Amino acid sequence: MTTESLCVMLTDMLKETNQGHLKWRLEAATSEYRDEQEKPTVEADGKTWTVDECYVAYSCEFRGKEFSMITYENIEKSGEAVRSINMVFLPPLGVRIFHLGELSSYAVETSAVLVDKVHRLWETLLGMYRDGSKNVTINAREIAVSEMSIGNDGQQAEV
């Protein structure tokens, strides 16, 4: 699927979600809430960056077909500065592997527009969940940052 067609699909899904027509199942795994001392750091641009990871698996039935998408964000913080790398994967149904090496063959080229669409979907679903919507279920767990996801130079490692 192209980046552009996924953007169009996500726009339609968001519209149908807001109308209450889609039921979402999310699985999230993040290192965000781990103790800062347990998180790896990288040196880059003359700063020390603390590294976090977040995976989210999205699934729902959309127009009679099962939809599955996994997103990955590598977040690095140094004081007030934040930078991130975002990836989107469209794996076969039922794949819930949160490992970049395993997901790499399902990667979709990302763009600022696609990252924005995914972020708006995440915010919408999280808001619905907080409001008690029966159309969103979330299973979240804590993970440690994978050594494969960070390079020695502080850049995303190739997978």
Account of the 3D structure:
The chain is of the alpha+beta class and 159 residues long. The protein has one domain (3-143). It is built from 3 helices and 7 strands. The protein has helices at 3-18, 100-103, 112-130, and strands at residues 24-30, 41-44, 47-62, 65-78, 81-89, 107-108, 136-142. Strands 1, 2, 3, 4, 5, 6 and 7 form a 7-stranded mixed β-sheet that branches. Helix 1 (3-18) runs parallel beside helix 3 (112-130). The protein is globular, with a radius of gyration of 16 Å. Mean pLDDT is 88; it is low at 150-159.
Features:
single chain; 159 residues; alpha+beta; 3 helices; 7 strands; globular; disordered C terminus
Strand content: 35-45%
Cα separation of the termini: 20 Å
Query: What is the string of SSEs from the N terminus onward?
Result: HEEEEEHEHE
Helix content: 10-25%
Q: Strand count, sense and closure of the main sheet?
A: 7 strands, mixed
Rg from alpha-carbon coordinates: 16 Å
What's the rounded overall pLDDT mean?
A: 88
Topology:
Blueprint lengths: L2 H16 L5 E7 L10 E4 L2 E16 L2 E14 L2 E9 L10 H4 L3 E2 L3 H19 L5 E7 L17
Helix pairs in contact: 1-3
Summarize it.
The chain has 159 residues and is an alpha+beta fold. It has helices spanning 3-18, 100-103, 112-130, and strands spanning 24-30, 41-44, 47-62, 65-78, 81-89, 107-108, 136-142.
